[in-house]
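Budget justification aside, the reviewers requested a transparent look at the raw inputs and outputs of the sequence design task funded under Objective 1. We therefore reproduce one unedited record. The lines immediately below are the structure tokens for a 437-residue chain.
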């Protein structure tokens, strides 16, 4: 009897322990993202740090490949009813996500439903406006936002006798001539060419990319990037390939080594390359605002963001979204955003994070690292410089890449290439419009 009693007692204790363990197990929140390498490690740190603050929820970050692969995987997973709670989607996927009927849980509504305090006014206008409905409701949570800047090699500039970074495109040409004369292999290169040389070039000069406010006012839009200003600029770039003023180095960030190994003394690409350049460059470097053409615009307007936001997908238990909401609050906190900004070069998405970075002396220690923020907030965004919201734009960017490469290799003139890109792109816009009527 005593032995049986002891066994029964042990069994009850085991059951109770098991029940307690089950009750206290943290609810897992799946976060699919596109951050590889060092940034992937930083994403893991954010998740782990949040998990350490409480025991009810566990954020599980999962790398799913590049931006296109991650968005495609999430859409496929939703159809199979195996979707994550959160997915990171790049800015040009916004229209596609908005069209995914029944899949998206608008983040502002999710925060309200979860009872989580949420103040939209703290977010930088140039960041948040890209992801709002016409009524001002926030669709997804800004996370990694950047904008292109002019990176320059300070040592090379000193050697070539250039006192300050160029502010205009004619000055870029003059600086490049001096750099080539000083023995450098090229003046400048750039990456993400559609984003930098068409999308941001247009916003910077307050020129439309398409009708209907670049797609924000309706999906029945038509491209207008095949205008005289863009064609003239791309034609100039093509002519500059002949003397190595400009050297093309690839579609994404493939041209980074041209800058970090000292071949090209200027590079136009995302502010988010700060961490990589700081690690790789063996020379003093700086950031400056994008150049402009005084004959096109009296002064620059504002640049537009790239990067990605976090979209919440429907189909999970209501309690899960309380955990998602708490994580969004943590992610947007000044401390987390200031750290992320200072480590990566992405802009802080809130004013308190920007102010905290200033208070911590980050910009004093690293002059120029607030260039992206100044560019984005240079002027109040116009319908031409708020951003873009075109359907199928992931595929349309591929078209733009193909046509721009045809310009660089001399198989097409800039005028023909941009007209062809607009024609091909408009067909995809109509396809998107038909699918979403």
């Amino acid at each position: 009897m005593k032995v049986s009693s002891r066994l029964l007692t042990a069994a009850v204790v085991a059951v109770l322990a098991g029940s307690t363990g089950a009750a206290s197990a943290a609810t897992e929140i799946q976060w699919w993202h596109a951050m590889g390498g060092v940034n992937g490690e930083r994403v893991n740190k954010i998740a782990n740090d949040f998990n350490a603050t409480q025991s009810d929820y566990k954020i599980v970050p999962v790398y799913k490949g590049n931006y296109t692969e991650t968005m495609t995987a999430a859409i496929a997973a939703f159809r199979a009813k195996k979707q994550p709670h959160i997915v990171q989607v790049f800015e040009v996927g916004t229209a596609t996500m908005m069209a995914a009927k029944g899949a998206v849980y608008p983040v502002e509504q999710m925060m309200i439903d979860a009872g989580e305090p949420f103040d939209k006014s703290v977010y930088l206008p140039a960041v948040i406006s890209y992801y709002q409905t016409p009524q001002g409701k926030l669709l997804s949570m800004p996370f990694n936002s950047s904008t292109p800047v002019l990176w320059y090699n300070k040592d090379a500039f000193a050697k070539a006798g250039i006192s300050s970074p160029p502010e205009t495109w004619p000055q870029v040409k003059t600086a490049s001539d001096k750099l080539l004369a000083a023995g450098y292999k090229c003046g400048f290169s750039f990456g993400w060419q559609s984003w930098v040389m068409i999308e941001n070039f247009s916003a910077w000069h307050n020129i439309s990319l398409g009708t209907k406010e670049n797609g924000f006012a309706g999906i029945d839009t038509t491209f207008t990037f095949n205008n005289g200003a863009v064609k003239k600029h791309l034609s100039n770039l093509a002519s500059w390939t002949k003397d190595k003023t400009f050297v093309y180095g690839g579609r994404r960030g493939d041209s980074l080594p041209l800058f970090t190994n000292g071949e090209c003394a200027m590079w136009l690409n995302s502010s988010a390359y700060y961490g990589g350049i700081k690690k790789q460059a063996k020379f003093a470097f700086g950031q400056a605002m994008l150049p402009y053409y005084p004959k096109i615009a009296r002064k620059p307007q504002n640049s537009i963001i790239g990067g990605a936001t976090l979209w919440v997908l429907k189909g999970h238990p209501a309690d899960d979204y309380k955990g998602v909401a708490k994580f969004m609050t943590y992610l947007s906190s000044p401390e987390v955003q200031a750290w992320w900004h200072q480590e990566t070069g992405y802009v802080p998405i809130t004013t308190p994070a920007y102010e905290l970075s200033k208070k911590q002396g980050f910009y004093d220690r690293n002059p120029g690292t607030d260039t992206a923020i100044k560019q984005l907030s240079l002027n109040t965004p116009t319908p031409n410089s708020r951003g873009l919201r075109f359907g199928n734009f992931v595929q349309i960017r591929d078209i733009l890449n193909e046509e721009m490469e045809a310009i660089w290799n001399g198989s097409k003139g800039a005028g023909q290439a941009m007209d062809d890109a607009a024609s091909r792109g408009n067909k995809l816009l109509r396809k998107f419009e038909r699918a979403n009527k």
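Residues 260 and 281 are 5 Å apart (CA to CA). Confidence is low (pLDDT under 50) at residues 1-23. Computational costs for records of this kind are itemized in the attached budget.
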